[in-house]
Amino acid sequence: MKEGRFEIIKNRRKDVVEKISDDKRKDRGLIRREVLKLSQREDNNLSSKEKQEIIDRMISRHMEVHHIGEKGNNTCVDSLHSQVANTGEILNILRKRGDFGDIDKSIIIDLESRINTKIMRQFPQKRVSEIVEEILQEGEFKNDKLSRVILKIKKLYEDYTGELAVNSAIKSESSYFIARFSRRYLDANRPLNARKIKKYLRVEFGQGQHLAQYYLLQRIFRETLGQEKEGEVEKPFLHISLHGKSDKPDDVGDVMIANGLKKGMMPCDPQIARWFEKRLNEKMKSEKMKKNNDGDYFSAGVSREGQRFCGNVIHCERRFGNDFLKPLGKNYQFIQVEISPKLRAQHFEKLSEILAEILKEFNEQFRDKGQLETFLKSNKSKEDDIRLEGKLYSKIGFDENILSGKILMGASHRMALDVNIGDKVLVDGEEFIVDKMTKNKISFRQPFIGGNNMDMVNKKVVIKKK
To answer: 64 and which of 105, 180, 230, 340 could share a cystine (Cβ 3.0–4.6 Å)?
Structure first.
């Protein structure tokens, strides 16, 4: 970094620290975020060369590896959570927690190194989560609080997703990138201003990661599609993001394709989500990818509002823009793909081949905007029309104990419409006041009403923000 630039950033950091409260002045992640936001505002007058140097450094900081696909290729694969937390991240995370401040740093480093050696001896033959569970039962680590905390941090890792992303991208000549930081350090699937993962806070906010993604995607558009102007992608573009999920009985599939409405937006057109789902199911069945002795095939399903892994608002905002990110536009189709551990581990090679085939098929079928628009129009359903207008199309439950005029909505459904508790919504034209979903009804994954509204129950209704 140039000495002049270093001094500019140093002074901006000083200004930021002076403006935040005393109790937050040691929060390095917060300071980095505020310096980044300040720099975005004040760097507009830099030369093109200087701006590009800053962008290159940003991409290098946030991406472990990245590759530009072949010319003409309109697909990209990423893996954002495929890094196991390293020593530096462990130290920063423990500092953020604040409950190990009296332990010498060298003790933490030595313990983390011994744990990491144990993990790497058995990986990739076993999944990291399996290895961690075994180590947690060993006498040396079982009753030691620091050991258990370090192991649980390392366990928050999505096995094989990085390798799947690289393999499928190479086979399909797609672009790809792998994030540098672990999920516990920087969870790139959280909204820009959110840090919480369960009861803990990640060290970094997401602004730098998402800006790095934006500029890397712009480079991909330029070099593979020949796009001259920065901004919305001018041709159809499929970006799939590979993640690992746990298995739950009510999941829509062993592979979950996120297509939930968020603040009235979707990360990709629902027709494309179904297109991806259909091809994945056909190919897994064709390859006889069975998950048990009963002959059941692994399956894929599209996850919508209220269901697990229905997506995150940041992916919709990347498509349509927000105060921080410029929009990539409607041609940009983003699919978050959540894959079960058994499928990742047992069928790695077949799955990477299948993903590569789907990427190739998108590249062949949707070469220009006209082809995409024709497909979307001819495959649009009534439900698609409603959801693309930013409305919910959902079944609702009934409970006579709910006050008339109230509708209980879980966080996912409230996020879909961008409403808060106390706001008003219209259910098939009738006005209701939004109330918090009760714990005993969360598992139903649908809104609930009471009063004299039995005629709305057991059928799909349109819910929209008033």
So the answer is: 180
Q: Are residues 135 and 229 in the same domain?
A: no
Domain encompassing residue 140? 87-155
Residues 284 and 426 in one domain: no
pLDDT class of 3 with cuts at 50, 70, 90: low
In order of 77, 374, 420, the CA distances from 371 in angstroms are: 22, 5, 39
Q: For the residues of 226-284, what is the DSSP string, one character each?
A: ---SSSS-SS-EEEEEEEE----TT-S-SEEEE---BTTB-SS-HHHHHHHHHHHHHHH
Query: Of 381, 408, 426, which residue sits at a domain end?
Result: 381
Q: How far is it, in rounded angstroms, from Cα 197 to Cα 464? A: 30
Would you say residue 108 lies in a domain?
Answer: yes
Cα–Cα distance for residue pair 400/265, rounded to 1 Å: 33
- The tokens for 263 are 């603040």
Residues 172 and 272 in one domain: yes
Q: Do 149 and 166 belong together in one domain? A: no
List of residues 6+ apart from 33 with CB closer than 8 A: 204, 205, 207, 208
Diameter of the chain measured on Cα atoms = 71
* Structure confidence by residue, pLDDT tens digits, 234-281: 999 999 999 999 888 889 999 999 999 999 999 999 999 999 999 999
**Which tens digit of pLDDT belongs to each residue from 443-463?**
899 999 988 878 888 889 999
